[in-house]
Amino acid sequence: MPVEFVVDPKLTDDLRARIVALWVEVTNAGGAVGFVSPVSAETVRPVAEQAFDGVAAGIDRLILGLDGEEVVALLFVVDNRFDLKDHWRVLKRVMVTPRGQKRGLGAALMRAAETLGRAAGLAALQVTVRGGTGTENFYAKLGYREVGRLPGALRVGPGDDRDEIQMWLDLPA
């Protein structure tokens, strides 16, 4: 069965728990989605709930990749909450289950975000990447370009500071 991408699914308690479980799985496999491994659901849940609140309020959007009932990919399309930046959005917590890596799910997820952005009439999308992971190359292949870098802005451990890389995709009309 192919993966289906759903925009703004109903955030039931069960779905919230499955999203948190994916977030924990991705983090503990080394994914750069806001935490450093090891994490537990108890650590992730408060941050996830804040993200869910933005979606439930209709301010932010959620794109979910489902393989049957299994949550295999997701990202949040986050409003800047500032009128002067209303023409673009930030993609946050871009994640694909480790079992789904190298299957094109990440690229398909990003194309779904691009489609959503174009349909909303946005001028651009931005995503932040943790340096040292190589994921900036993934985004570059999708048309994103590096527009900024904050050296050592992310401290993932003692003596392990990483650059925060800003990637940008123009969405011409």
Description:
With 173 residues, the chain is an alpha+beta fold. It has a single domain (4-170), classed as Aminopeptidase (3-Layer(aba) Sandwich), CATH 3.40.630.30. The protein has helices at residues 13-28, 41-56, 105-119, 135-141, and strands at 4-7, 61-67, 70-78, 88-96, 124-130, 145-157, 160-170. Helix 3 links the parallel strand 4 (88-96) and strand 5 (124-130). The N and C termini lie far apart (33 Å). The relative contact order is 0.14.
Topology:
Layout: E1 4-7, H1 13-28, H2 41-56, E2 61-67, E3 70-78, E4 88-96, H3 105-119, E5 124-130, H4 135-141, E6 145-157, E7 160-170
Parallel strand pairs: 4-5
Antiparallel strand pairs: 1-2, 2-3, 3-4, 5-7, 6-7
Poorly predicted regions are none
Strand arrangement within the widest β-sheet reads 1-2-3-4-5-7-6
**How many structural domains does the protein architecture include?**
1
CATH architecture annotation name: 3-Layer(aba) Sandwich
What keywords describe this structure?
31% helix, Aminopeptidase, 4 helices, globular, alpha+beta, 173 residues
Structure in a nutshell:
It contains four helices and seven strands. With 173 residues, the chain is α+β, with helices and mostly antiparallel strands. Strands 1-2-3-4-5-7-6 form a seven-stranded mixed beta sheet, sandwiched between helices.
